Description:
The structure is a single chain. The chain is built from 17 helices and 17 strands. By secondary structure, it is an alpha+beta fold. The protein has 3 domains: 11-30 and 64-203, Dipeptide-binding Protein, Domain 1 (Dipeptide-binding Protein, domain 1); 34-58 and 206-246 and 463-490, Periplasmic binding protein-like II (D-Maltodextrin-Binding Protein, domain 2); 250-459, Dipeptide-binding Protein, domain 3, CATH 3.10.105. Strands 12-11-13-10-14 form a 5-stranded mixed sheet. A 4-stranded mixed sheet has the order 1-8-15-9. It has a 4-stranded antiparallel sheet with strand order 4-5-7-6, covered by helices on one side. Helix 16 (420-431) packs antiparallel against helix 17. Residues 1-42 and 203-207 have low confidence and may be disordered.
Amino acid sequence: xxxxxGSLSRRDLMRRTAIGAGVLAFGPAAQACSSAGSSGGTxxxxxxxxxxxxxxRGTGVVNFDPANTIxxxxxxxxxxxxxxxxxTDPQGKLIPWLVLGHTVSSDxxxxxxxxxxxxxxxxxxxxxxxDVVFSVMRCAKDTAGPLSYLDAAIxxxxxxxxxxxxAELTQPWAPFISDLSVYSNAIVPxxxxxxxxxxxxxxxxxxxxxxxxxxxxxxTIDIAGSAPPASVSxxxxxxxxxxxxxxxxxxxxxxxxxxxxxxxxxxxxxxxxHAIDRKAxxxxxxxxxxxxxxxFIPPSVQFYDPKTPVLGYDLAAAKAELSQSHFPHGFxxxxxxxxxxxxxxxxxxxxxxxxxxxxxxxxxxxxxxxSYHQEFQSFHYEMxxxxxxxxxxxxxxxxxxxxxxxxxxxxxxxxxxxxxxxxALVHQGETTQDxxxxxxxxxxxxxxxxxxxxxxxxxxxxxxxxxxxNVHNFKVIASGxxxxxxxxxx
Length: 490
């Protein structure tokens, strides 16, 4: 995009990434940093334009199509290139980004939007309402898209002018604006500028976590993303380096394949939940950076209920649950983990040790990232470790993805969990407008899911980033995204 006078240029980022004609918008002035970590060194001269920021990412990018990926390695690169109508600011608040705002009809089913004036794609073409309609409906109609369920309430969308458009909903939908802020609804040129999706989206590559830490300390890179928990202590004592632990809308999970008889057995899942010491995992695997989890909805997400009944660490209760199952004498199973994640490797070893007490023998299967994702998304696994992240400010994203096997597009996070009562609560939460009533609905949902144990919340990890002290005003949003337009260098 072309930048207005006084704004911070992002054209260099676009050139370095060399991807199609993605939307790069100018936004409001950045607010003071409110993250858990420092935002870098201080400078009497104030912000400076120019320079090159070298960012060490966690894993390589596989897919640059925002409507067709949920891999965090893709997502946190995509949101530097393509942008949605609304974004979440560092304080977790939804703000207009490519739009000036919206109005809503009295029945809450007709939403009218106006685009910001002067916004252009990187090739100089002006952003129009037709681009918006194409982009959002492209995501909404793509039944294979992993987050297309977030657009389920959209009946139609049409342009009413060059900068105005209207969305018609099938019913009142409380999280609609939050849904529009998700990265999969990012705006691309209408018809992809006449190109196929394959030619429009490109693929680059990036390095491993320990190498990034070394590169940061040596000054080869300016920011290291997804720093391993084991490195935090060393980074805090390193000269010229700042480290931040940013609270996120995410939760580490142990997930079960309910297509397999032993994990279709509710008593087995509950027994395992009771057998796992979450505090031990927090201390040993996350080096104390991730608090033990209770509900599958993290504390930083709206409607989290700290009073959710949890199947806590209790070996006697675990043995009692297993005795009521069809597998009272134990069994052998496999636990799938990504080979690139040292924290998950340590977590897997703790789980392996603790389940031996139930006569459950666990073989740890460690695969490269691409094979790991392919295996669990094809249900070629028995148990696997992964995190869940809420991509929008409303809990509907996480709840639908993990609890509604049909609407969530992932068969309940590839567990095949299917509880009609839980699904009904998800739908009630979507269509109920009253905040107090929604809080009660999500409280009940958290209790139901906790009792069923389709997955076990293990801990609430922060986003761990480290940066050289010449980097200023770097912040990470609770979704894991980080906006770079206000970052500057000494």
